[in-house]
Design a protein that fits this description.
47% helix; Cys_rich_dom; oxidoreductase activity; Rossmann fold; 4-stranded parallel beta sheet
Amino acid sequence: MRVALQATCLGDALFPGVGQATVRLLRRLGVEVDFPPEQTCCGQPMINSGYLDEAVPALRSFVSAFEGYDAVVTPSGSCAGAARHQHAIVARRSGDPGLQRAVEQTAPRVHELSEFLVDVLGVTDVGASFPHAVTYHPTCHSLRMLGVADKPLRLLREVRDIDLRELPEATQCCGFGGTFAVKNADTSIAMGSDKARHVRATGAQVLVAGDASCLMHVGGLLGRQRSGVRTMHLAEVLASTEGLGADTGPGAATKHSEEPA
């Protein structure tokens, strides 16, 4: 199986450790992973903002970069959702039959990380060890657009020595929503503050999610509150194994949990 990593724009710019953890995890499971260097944005920011025509070049780059792979794995429910559901809308609007065919071939091969592990590889125990108190936030696109359901939780429950705590009102949006956080900042902050309050109520050391954008948003609020709660991507927890030292603990979490939002 030829597998490619879609690192995502945010991952490439601010959270490179998430992509590295994804590759480390998949290789530990026997999957050979390529990183097509020509990959760029999936087009989601333009699409979500209504700029469908402006997203066409991004789609062309996407299908060109990932053409020929059996699977494309991304540590982002929102980017996977864009590829699987929104790309077809943009391609149809473009009126380019070649782009439509390329999207039809590529889109079904794009998988959010937990989907790929559970549905494609058929594993829930990935050999991870993480002896810390953790709570999990299911991100909106992974939950509602992709329907990953409890796959991330099934993976986390198999992690050695983890103390997994239920997050109150877990399915409520964290308030990030991409450009929503900029255009509707007050509402976004209020929603994020509710999420941060629920996270703190669990007593967890680490907040885990499958999208770095949500972790950046809530982590910023938790940092302002000096809560001591760190944020980590699902891939980072699943890539952790006994004996990795700092890579296995809350210290491996993104620094954004300590910085102002």
